[in-house]
Amino acid sequence: MSLRTAGGLTVTDITDDVREAVRESGVAHGVCCVYSPHTTCSVRVNEFERGFLEDFAVLLRRLVPAEHYYAHDDWDRRTENICEEDQEFGNGHSHCMSMLLGPAGESIPVRDGELCLGQWQRILFLELDRERDRRWLVQVVGA
Fold first, then answer.
1. Which residues pair with 44 in a beta bridge?
2. Of 123, 139, 117, 118, which is closest to residue 27 (Cα–Cα)?
3. Backbone angles phi, psi at 55, to 5 degrees
4. Could you tell me the sign of the dihedral formed by the alpha carbons of 23, 25, 31, 34, in that order?
5. I need a surface site. Which of 2, 21, 96, 105 has the fewest CB within 10 A?
6. DSSP H or E run through 83
């Protein structure tokens, strides 16, 4: 699946797309893995509620301010994984945020062909960097 993010700690609710992938898989009982192959994005299960999302963005920005020095963005020091596009925009803070958030994806149980999410839980795709075209993967395994 793909999407264009708005950048800057944006959150996209991808729950309905994941539910559709589970239905299309034909798996009745198993696990649905949702994964971001981007190092500055993350997939998380939580509430999709404006107040919480605002609080979370404030917390992340307080913990990992973009204005801080990051060796990742120091082109006099950095010699690995260099992409010309990245040299215009420092994103060391985005990588640090991603590491704090943990794994790049979530595993959600599937029962009777449905995701086992709590009443308010949604599957969220978090963009921690600038506006970009992104993708996320869904793998459903089971019987």
1. 124
2. 139
3. -60, -40
4. negative
5. 2
6. none
- By CB atoms closer than 10 A (0-12, 13-18, 19+), residue 30 is middle
Q: Report which residue type is found at 109.
A: P
Q: What distances in angstroms separate CA 84 from CA 88, 93, 102, one per listed residue? A: 8, 18, 27
Could you give the strand order of the β-sheet that contains 114-115, starting from the edge strand earlier in sequence?
114-115, 105-111, 30-35, 137-142
Write out the chain's pLDDT in tens, 143 residues: 999 999 989 999 999 999 999 999 999 999 999 999 999 999 999 999 999 999 999 999 999 999 999 999 999 999 898 877 777 889 999 999 999 999 999 999 999 999 999 999 999 999 999 999 999 999 999 99
Q: Which two tokens stand for residue 84?
A: 């010309």
Contact 97, 72 (CB under 8 A): no
pTM of the model: 0.94
Q: By CB neighbour count within 10 A (0-12 exposed, 13-18 middle, 19+ buried), where does 136 fall? A: buried
In the numeric block, the tokens 């978090």 are attached to 126
